[in-house]
Amino acid sequence: MFKTRLISGIILVAAAIALLTLGGTVLAAGLGLISLIGMFELYRTVKAEKSLLGLVGYAAGVIYYLLLVFSGDPTVDSLPVIFFVAFLMLLMAVYVFAFPKYEAGQVMTVFFGLIYVAVMLSYIYRTRVMEGGQLLVWLVFLSSWGCDTCAYCVGMLIGKHKMAPKLSPKKSVEGGIGGVVGAGILGAIYGAIFGGSMEAALHSPVVDCVIICMVGAVISQIGDLAASAIKRNHGVKDYGKLIPGHGGILDRFDSVIFVAPGIYYTIILLTEGVQALSRFLGA
Questions:
Q1: What is the band of 166 on the pLDDT scale with cuts at 50, 70, 90?
Q2: Which of 44, 80, 144, 272 is most buried (most C-beta within 10 Å)?
């Protein structure tokens, strides 16, 4: 089992390196495909994965990524609200004209799936295309997967107090703290190594990378537990079996889904906050 998990992990890391290095439409296409698989796994929990509702959800996911890539500056939240309103209206149309084939809970899950999987994962692409994004985007995975590893190691060594016993009995408060601290240390190392190349994007690369990674680590654990909560509610052990030793896409990317937008907005707050303070002091 460990060997299978290790091999799968290496392949995942290699795929992530390839997509993040190439960036652009290749990264967007890769994230779009991952999103569709993740949406399929989520829709399967409410038995909507092969229904007309599910097809509408998948189509919306594809259209969303096309809009993201071709509608202008992807670092700006410029996608029209009408897209999401139209998506909801279309889902409701399917719901009422096929009534009573679908339940309201299925409609809500299909709508939720677009936001939870496709939109939140798209912030990896948004981070990649911002100034200095070639290096900043790695902080998403450094904080997420780094936190997982550090939390596991610390939890195994000194973990005593359960963090969320009804959701994940093996997670401990000590492990959670270790994950945040460990992610911060990794961020400091990353900032020290690549800080010179990030000065145009970050004012204090080492300090900023520490803050970004620690914020990402906290969000990472919330994302992990949120995915577990959804599985518990629907009596599901794993979302899928696509990745041997890891489960499905949502099992492996549950924390990344939350971390991506968290990292993106933390970077914006750090950069724009410093700029606003400089303008204020200089006034």
A1: confident
A2: 144
